[in-house]
TrEMBL record:
Residues 25-139 form the AB hydrolase-1 domain. It comes from Streptomyces liangshanensis. One of its GO terms (molecular function) is triacylglycerol lipase activity. Pfam families: Abhydrolase_1 (PF00561). This is Alpha/beta hydrolase. Coiled coil: none annotated. One of its GO terms (biological process) is glycerolipid catabolic process. It comes from the Bacteria. Keywords: Hydrolase.
Length: 280
């Protein structure tokens, strides 16, 4: 794998670590969950033949240190970080953006706040659950996760969170569904993933999943937006917002290989689908 060019960018309250590969028009990849630039390295490498691909560690994760480790997080500030990277790497030229999960939420806000800088935004299963008809139920889930995290710790909170994300009716399944085997590169990042979980559950989940996007603005900009979801995840909570928004905006939902973490479990197939989506 080709070594990327790396750099740091000073933003409000943090210093971002970013990586750049390839040549051509800029494509910014915004990771989700506890992922950072390393989680997108294989995807970035494959896309670098067609694009200048930028990846980064979101503030508070990996090499992107916060000035104040206890600072509360917001979608708007994370989206502004992405905007600052666009300004640095593609000054004056609109760029393509891909965001997965919580990174997809940041990409949605980036599109609404700085639409002139985004040529196309592909967002894969952004868990903007407050747009759903049963938003009150998910607000209660977030409150239970937060209470458990503060009073019982990480793993009990994760158990509540995971139960809230599972497929509708999955609690009645006779046995757990088998989990896909992770590629070696993804399995090797398990330690980093675990290290980032307290920050993710304590700061990112409550801020991002309680976020309410500007739906009127998104609909007006929907020609620049591709809503995507996993082929294997219908019925899961993370799949539902993208499907709901696609219906609301009269757009086709783009289906990608795998489920919510298809980018991790099916990196080659996912990347090919992303490449095709960006070209159309």
């Amino acid at each position: 794998m080709t070594a990327p060019t790396t750099g740091t960018l000073r933003v409000n309250g943090a210093t971002l670590h970013y990586e750049v590969r390839g040549r051509g028009p800029l494509l910014l990849l915004i990771p989700g969950g506890t992922g950072g630039a390393a989680s997108l390295a294989e995807v970035a490498e494959d896309l670098a033949a067609a694009y200048t691909v930028a990846t980064y560690d979101p503030r508070g994760m990996g090499g992107s240190a916060l000035d104040d480790p206890e600072a509360e997080q917001s979608v708007a500030e994370h989206a502004d970080d992405a905007f600052r990277l666009l300004e640095l790497l593609s000054p004056g030229e609109p760029a393509r953006v891909f965001g997965a999960s919580s990174g997809g939420i940041a990409a949605l806000h980036l599109l609404t706040a700085h639409h002139g800088r985004v040529l196309r935004a592909v967002v894969h299963e952004p868990p903007v659950v407050m747009v759903l008809p049963d938003a009150a139920e998910h607000r209660r889930l977030l409150a239970r996760v937060d209470e458990s995290f503060r009073t019982e710790g990480l793993m009990p909170a994760m158990a509540i969170f995971a139960a809230g994300l599972r497929k509708e009716g999955a609690e009645d399944a006779p046995e757990p569904q088998p989990q896909p085997e992770l590629p070696p590169q993804a399995a090797a990042r398990t330690e980093q993933t675990m290290a980032g979980l307290p920050y993710f559950v304590g700061r990112i989940v409550p801020a991002f999943m309680s976020y309410v996007p500007d739906l009127a603005r998104l609909e007006a900009l929907s020609d620049h937006l591709v809503l995507a979801a996993g082929q294997d995840s219908p019925g899961e909570l993370t799949h539902r917002p993208a499907a709901h928004l696609a219906t609301r905006f009269g757009k086709e939902l783009a289906l990608f290989p795998g489920g919510h973490i298809g980018l991790t479990t099916h990196p080659k197939e996912f990347t090919e689908q992303l490449h095709q989506t960006l070209r159309t």
